[in-house]
Write a structure and sequence with these properties.
By secondary structure, this protein is α+β, with helices and mostly antiparallel strands. The protein has one domain. It is built from three helices and six strands. The chain has helices spanning 14-27, 46-55, 93-101; strands spanning 8-12, 29-36, 41-43, 60-67, 70-78, 86-92. A six-stranded antiparallel beta sheet has the order 1-6-5-4-2-3. A hairpin with a 4-residue loop joins strand 2 and strand 3 (41-43). Helix 1 (14-27) packs antiparallel against helix 2 (46-55).
């Protein structure tokens, strides 16, 4: 059995989320963004996803983007115990594929 694909876990406050949105907007090629409000999932723009997390109209967002010649997946989930915080889980697509091949 192989080790799981490397994941980054972080908890983001409002300033961290603003920095992440600014960084992704500036340097990443965003391929897809989806948000989930608890009843349905829909596609949207990156800025709409972050706004929905801030206002509480979305509980989670998935962002797929390319940066530094790699494809990345960021999952952002509002912390149920502290709605001011968002949990981030990040993984590179090639790490997932390498884990599946092992």
């Amino acid at each position: 059995m192989s080790d799981a694909a490397p994941l980054l876990h972080a908890t983001l406050g409002p300033e961290d989320r603003a920095d992440l949105l600014r960084d992704l907007s500036a340097v990443a090629a965003v391929d897809a963004v989806q948000i989930d409000d608890g009843t349905r999932t829909r596609t949207c723009r990156l800025d709409e996803a972050f706004a929905a997390l801030e206002t509480g109209t979305a509980r989670r967002a998935l962002v797929r983007y390319r940066f530094d010649d790699r494809a990345w997946f960021d999952t952002l989930v509002v912390d149920a115990g502290n709605p001011g915080l968002v949990r981030l889980v990040r993984v590179a697509e090639d790490d997932i594929l390498a884990d599946e091949d092992a």
